């Protein structure tokens, strides 16, 4: 934008209107107490070499000013803003985007009477902050059709600016939403992958435990169905002779011993011997 206003963004704002102070009390008394309607202003590039300013209350007053690059450069020198052209334009934009913008309205008196004839001219004044250089632009009053055109142009420009900002906000919100959705999908994919790994590890562990359990249950059956001949011989060899001896010879010997020497028979034998001895006597 060093050589023109190709990239100049329109500026919209509200100007605080006030009557210009006058030394004559009679000329200012009739208007000083008259309230203003709210004023809006619109600054935009008329072409790449000039700016146009519109100020209106959409009712009684509409003002206009045009400034070329040469006129703005003279203004820069007059108010004492140093730096490059780009820096001056940036300062101008910041000043009119601030809250320090006011519209000073001037009245005029008839030559033949002291009566006032309403607002005849105005100045749009702005500065970036307190103590900084003031930018003052003189305005011309528009009438009838030209005023209507200015109001229509301001309204259309305001609508375009609103739609542009709204679309930008919606686009930014959509991008953020897409970013969050992508992040959420990525995190979900990571979570699913981790869960799948855990499930696979758990399934493998269960399968191993099942195999070990089945092996433990099958081990005794395998020993019974397929005995080791040497172990079987060692386990069974002492049992068979013991069973045969206990069931045969030992039992018989016990029975024979009991029959040979019964206690009651030994007593009777002793008695018989005694009886035989008494009879003999």
**How confident overall, as mean pLDDT?**
78
Strand line-up in the sheet with most strands = 1-2-3-4-7-6-5
- Class of the domain at 11-142 in CATH? Mainly Beta
From the alpha-carbon coordinates, what is the Rg to the nearest angstrom? 61 Å
The largest sheet, given as strand count, sense and whether it forms a barrel, is: 7 strands, mixed, barrel
Order of helices and strands: EHEEEHHEEEHHHH
* Class by alpha and beta content: alpha+beta
| Low-pLDDT segments, ≥5 res | 25-29, 110-116, 240-248, 253-257, 277-281
Give the CA-CA distance, first to last residue.
174 Å
Q: Which homologous superfamily in CATH is the superfamily of the domain at 11-142? A: DNA double-strand break repair and VJ recombination XRCC4, N-terminal
Helix fraction, binned, reads: 55-70%
CATH architecture of the domain at 11-142: Beta Complex
- The proportion of strand residues reads 15-25%
Write the CATH fold name of the domain at 11-142.
Dna Repair Protein Xrcc4, Chain: A, domain 1
Please count the beta strands (DSSP E, at least 2 residues each): 7
Count of helical regions: 7
Overall morphology: rod-shaped
Region (Disordered): 173-194, 217-259
Keywords: Ribonucleoprotein
Protein name: U2 small nuclear ribonucleoprotein auxiliary factor-like protein
Organism: Thalictrum thalictroides
């Amino acid at each position: 934008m060093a050589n023109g206003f190709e990239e100049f963004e329109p500026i919209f704002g509200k100007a605080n209107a006030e009557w210009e102070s006058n030394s004559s009390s009679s000329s200012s008394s009739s208007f000083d107490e008259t309230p203003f309607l709210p004023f809006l202003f619109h600054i935009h590039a008329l072409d790449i070499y000039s700016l146009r300013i519109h100020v209106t209350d959409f009712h009684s007053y509409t003002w206009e000013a045009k400034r070329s690059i040469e006129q703005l450069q003279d203004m820069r020198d007059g108010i004492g803003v140093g730096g490059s052209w780009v820096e001056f334009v940036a300062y101008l934009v910041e000043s009119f985007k601030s809250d320090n913008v006011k519209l000073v309205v001037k009245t005029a008196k008839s030559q033949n009477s002291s009566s006032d004839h309403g607002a005849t001219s105005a100045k749009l004044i702005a500065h970036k902050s307190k103590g900084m250089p003031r930018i003052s632009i003189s305005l011309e009053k528009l009438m009838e059709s030209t005023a209507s055109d200015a109001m229509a142009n301001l309204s259309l420009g305001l609508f375009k600016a609103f739609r542009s900002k709204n679309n930008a906000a919606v686009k930014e919100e959509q991008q953020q939403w897409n970013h969050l959705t992508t992040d959420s999908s990525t995190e979900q994919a990571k979570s699913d992958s981790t869960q799948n790994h855990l499930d696979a590890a758990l399934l493998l562990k269960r399968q191993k435990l099942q195999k070990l359990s089945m092996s433990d249950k099958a081990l005794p059956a395998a020993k019974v169905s397929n005995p080791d001949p040497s172990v079987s011989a060692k386990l069974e060899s002492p049992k068979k002779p013991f069973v045969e001896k206990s069931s045969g010879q030992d039992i018989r010997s016990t029975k024979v011993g009991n029959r040979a020497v019964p206690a009651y028979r030994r007593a009777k034998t002793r008695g018989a011997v005694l009886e035989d001895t008494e009879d003999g006597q």
